[in-house]
Design brief:
Chain A is α/β, with parallel strands linked by helices and 245 residues long. Chain A has helices at 52-59, 78-81, 84-90, 103-106, 179-193, 197-208, 226-236; strands at 2-9, 12-18, 32-37, 40-44, 68-72, 95-99, 116-119, 124-128, 131-137, 147-151, 156-158, 214-216, 223-224. The chains are: A alpha/beta (245), B mainly alpha (209).
Chain lengths: 245, 209
């Protein structure tokens, strides 16, 4: 599995893991993100059971697994959190931050209610050893209870399925190189999985007010610099909620 | 005979031990790079010393070999812990499935229907658990390699210090080699810590088993 440091400033690091060559073809490719601050970790959308060994191995090179204090799940899908019981077996102290509407559903993946931190609809914060990150509402993008995570220091927005792309090559670059060409891999995904133009417009209003250097989706490639704004503009012009083209 | 609960704890313990070793040994790669760079600087200094630098030249070559060995050790540990974690995760998933099926069987009116599922899970679990001693055996070999590197590091460090003493105190080369020896001592401590840590993890595994 490819691991790449996206940001480092003093004791703060952002790491992305993705493009797992050991992953079976029938399993959708996912990106996992890790924040390490002063040796403590926050893991975002840790992924499914199939890829757990590769993710946990990759992460252990950046921080000790038992130092992961927080796991953030943007929503309830199996490619986001079905590995939860395995994660809790190696970091039992971790708190699981998920949209409140999904807590009773996510416990079906095999985790104790006491580990869960239900995040209200308006969002919240997570404190990683004194470093605070914001949980941004992204409901109906695509899930009815959906959150994104923004780090004002790193200026990174973890955007879950927003900005996701179904890449044709298993070893595609982790960062978008040619935005226009990249839209071909995003369009069907967003039209089909994102149900609401209204939710999209509310989200755009919210995130355009943030200072963002990198937009990091859970599938596909990362948008950097001007491509972040390009993505917002492209997304704004898309008709969502279509089951066919 | 270990109880089910003990076995489950042991399976998770395998994974935690594997991950802890991988995390700890990741820093060995930085150490290998640092040693390699120091050795390169020392090589330049030994060339500047002319004939008097011949002994240093041999020793810096030896240090480069140590750095290469350390890099190989990191790669071995990566490969081993990758396989080990994959195996432990599979065991943990299977053990979980086995527990769920056994609970369903206990509360079912038709318990015989579950026997096949439980037997399959048992068979796969036994096959996977049989691999653990091989993994531990490979780790023992890696720790042996580390200890061999450690002996060479200590030997070379003493040699560099003795030779550096022979140089004129004002000579710039003396500072370079004394610094190299100091860094090699740091490396020695780190390698020893890592070997001790790995041995402790293996002992914990044996206790858990």
């Amino acid at each position: 599995m490819k691991a790449q440091r996206l940001f480092q400033q003093g004791e703060l690091q952002w790491i992305v893991l993705g493009r797992d060559p050991a992953k079976p073809d029938y399993v959708i490719d996912t990106n996992e993100y890790l924040i390490v601050h002063q040796g403590r970790g926050l893991l975002m959308d840790p992924g499914g059971t199939e890829i757990f060994p590769e993710v946990v191995n990759g992460i252990s090179e950046y921080c000790s697994v038992d130092s992961i204090d927080h796991i953030f799940g943007s929503h309830q899908d199996p490619d986001i959190l079905s590995s939860l019981s395995l994660w809790l077996s190696v970091c039992p102290q971790a708190k699981i931050h998920v949209p409140w509407v999904w807590t009773g559903f996510i416990t079906h993946f095999g985790c104790d209610q006491s580990s869960m931190v239900p995040v209200p609809d308006e969002g919240g914060e997570i404190d990683v050893a004194g470093h605070r990150v914001q949980l941004i509402p992204a409901h109906y993008l695509h899930s009815s209870g959906n959150l994104h995570l923004y780090d004002p220091t790193a200026k990174i927005l973890f955007s879950g399925d927003v900005g996701a792309a179904l890449m044709p090559e298993a070893d595609a670059p982790l960062v978008v190189k040619d935005f226009d060409a990249h839209t071909a891999y995003m369009e069907t995904f967003h039209r089909r999985w994102m149900p609401s133009n209204r939710a999209r417009d509310q989200w755009l209003e919210r995130v355009r007010a943030l200072d963002i250097d990198m937009l990091c989706p859970q599938h596909g490639a990362i948008f950097k610099g001007d491509d972040v704004q390009r993505f917002f503009d492209w997304f704004e012009g898309l008709e969502l909620g279509c089951a066919s083209n | 005979m270990p109880t089910h609960h003990h076995r489950q704890a042991s399976d998770t313990g395998d994974m935690q031990a594997s991950l802890a070793i991988r995390h700890k040994l990741a820093s060995l790669l930085n150490l290998a790079h640092a040693i390699s760079l120091l050795a390169l600087n020392a090589k330049v200094s030994s060339a500047q010393l002319g004939i008097r630098g011949a002994v240093f030249s041999v020793m810096t070559q030896e240090i480069q070999t140590i750095a290469t060995d350390l890099r190989r050790t990191v790669e071995d540990v990566r490969a081993l812990t990758e396989a080990w974690t994959r195996q432990s995760a599979r065991i943990a998933s299977l053990a979980n499935r086995q527990r769920v099926i056994a609970n369903a069987q206990a509360s079912s009116r038709h318990p015989t229907g579950f026997a096949r599922g439980i037997a399959e899970a048992n068979r796969e679990l036994d096959d996977l658990r049989r691999l653990t001693p091989d993994m531990v055996g490979k780790l023992v070999q890696i720790v042996d390699d580390m200890e061999r590197s450690l002996r060479v590091v200590n030997y070379v460090t003493v040699g560099i210090l003795m030779e550096a003493e022979r140089l004129d105190r004002s000579h710039q080369g003396q500072q370079t080699f004394t610094h190299l020896a100091t860094e090699m001592r740091v490396a020695s401590t780190q390698i020893r810590d890592m070997a001790t840590f790995s041995i402790k993890q293996m002992e914990n595994l044996e206790i858990a088993a």
